Task: inverse folding
């Protein structure tokens, strides 16, 4: 009887831990922003670009400029943090 109670307690604790655990996610950094100067997007910004080339392609034809995302972490620190250890 005691064994069955211990099993139920272990199952309950495991279930509670699964409910509390947050899902795994990869951090994505967007170091480039676009400031729009023409069309319906005039005055708008979009800080969702991984490369400067992506940003330049997006503003092509609509007008604007690309600049480094001020909220993006320092790329040197990011590389150090994600460097794999041998």
Result:
């Amino acid at each position: 009887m005691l064994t069955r109670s211990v099993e139920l307690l272990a199952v309950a604790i495991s279930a509670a831990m699964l409910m509390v655990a947050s899902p795994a996610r990869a951090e994505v950094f967007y170091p480039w922003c676009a400031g729009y100067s023409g069309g319906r997007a005039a005055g708008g910004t979009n800080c969702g670009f991984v490369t400067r080339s992506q940003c330049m392609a997006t503003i092509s034809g609509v007008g604007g400029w690309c600049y480094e995302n001020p909220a993006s972490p320092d790329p040197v620190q990011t590389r150090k943090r994600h460097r794999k250890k041998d």
Observations:
- The two ends are 50 Å apart (CA to CA).
- Strands lie at 32-36, 45-49, 64-68.
- The longest strand covers residues 32-36.
- Residues 78-83 have pLDDT under 50 and may be disordered.
